[in-house]
Amino acid sequence: MHEHGNAFYEFLRLRKRLFVDTLNWDIPHNDIVEMDEYDNPAAFYSLVLDGERLVGGARTMPVNAVWGTKTSMFQDAMLGKIEGIPSDLVTGSFDPEISWECTRLIIDDSVTGADARKTCLNLIVDGLAQMASDQGAKVLVSLSPPPLQRALRGLGHDVSQIGRTYRCESDGRNYCLLSMPALVSDAAKRANSGGLRAAS
Fold first, then answer.
1. What pLDDT score was predicted for residue 6?
2. By the 8 A CB rule, do 146 and 59 touch?
3. What is residue 1's predicted lDDT score, i.e. its pLDDT?
4. pLDDT tens, 93-140?
5. In Å, how far are 44, 59, 68, 121, 187 from 126, measured between CA atoms?
6. Helix count (H) and strand count (E) of the chain?
7. Distance (Å, whole) CA 105 – CA 171
8. Contact assessment for residue 169 and residue 114, using Cβ atoms and an 8 Å cutoff
9. What is the DSSP string of 104-157?
10. Which residues make beta-bridge pairs with 107?
11. Of 11, 113, 156, 185, which is most buried by a Cβ count within 10 Å?
12. Can you say whether the dihedral through the CA atoms of 148, 153, 159, 164 is positive or negative?
């Protein structure tokens, strides 16, 4: 935070406008920001700035992180500790030891046009993948609206759905568990085209 001015605080403000004011999520907030128990020292953040203005971001942390009585949001949900998220969502292969969760993904409405929003998403996800892989992660997972799968595939990521889709009662939207290798987009494209090969 000392290196990036008020970017983190602006991220919390942006989150409040979407998740609380628009989607009506019942999560910790005041009149200005949204910040929950997973915003702790186990978390990393990928934020995108347009000049001095924050226009997007997301949070990531190890699925098996521990901070006090909390793990990650994903793990706590699977343990039945988060009201409103079913605990039986995982239906595919999943290894928490090598996986990091991605949460609170948001792009500001001021970013208009398909190309601009795609660029912003790419920067956010590349930041998440870089930080997670630098810490030893192999996989990124996210509980997200299903259309995100198509958007990430458009950036070159090999995304798969590893859980059933469910409908959130508070915002009326559908969500599912998505998983992909923790690669930045250029590396993901090379991997998908066969450009990354194990040395023999």
1. 93
2. no
3. 76
4. 889 999 999 999 999 999 999 999 999 999 999 999 999 999 999 999
5. 13, 12, 29, 8, 10
6. 5, 7
7. 16
8. no
9. EEEE-TT--SHHHHHHHHHHHHHHHHHHHHHTT--EEEEEE-THHHHHHHHTT-
10. 56
11. 11
12. positive
Distances (CA, A) of 52 to 6, 48, 166: 9, 10, 37
Asked if 72 and 38 touch (Cβ cutoff 8 Å), the reply is yes
Radius of gyration of the chain (CA): 16
Query: Residue 163 pLDDT more than 80?
Result: yes
Which pair of tokens denotes residue 189? 């494209």
Who contacts 54 (Cβ-Cβ below 8 Å, separation ≥6)?
Answer: 7, 10, 11, 14, 47, 48, 108
Amino acid at 191: A
38 within 8 A of 61, measured Cβ to Cβ: yes
Look up tokens 């660029």; give the residue: 119
SS3 for 179? strand
3-state secondary structure of 94: coil
CA-based nearest residue to 125, from 145, 146, 112, 142: 142
**Mean pLDDT of all residues in 40-44:** 96
Can you state the percent helix, strand and coil of the chain, rounding each to 5? Answer: 30, 25, 45
Cα separation, 106 vs 11, whole angstroms: 9
Instruction: Report d(CA 199, CA 146) in Å as an integer.
Output: 36
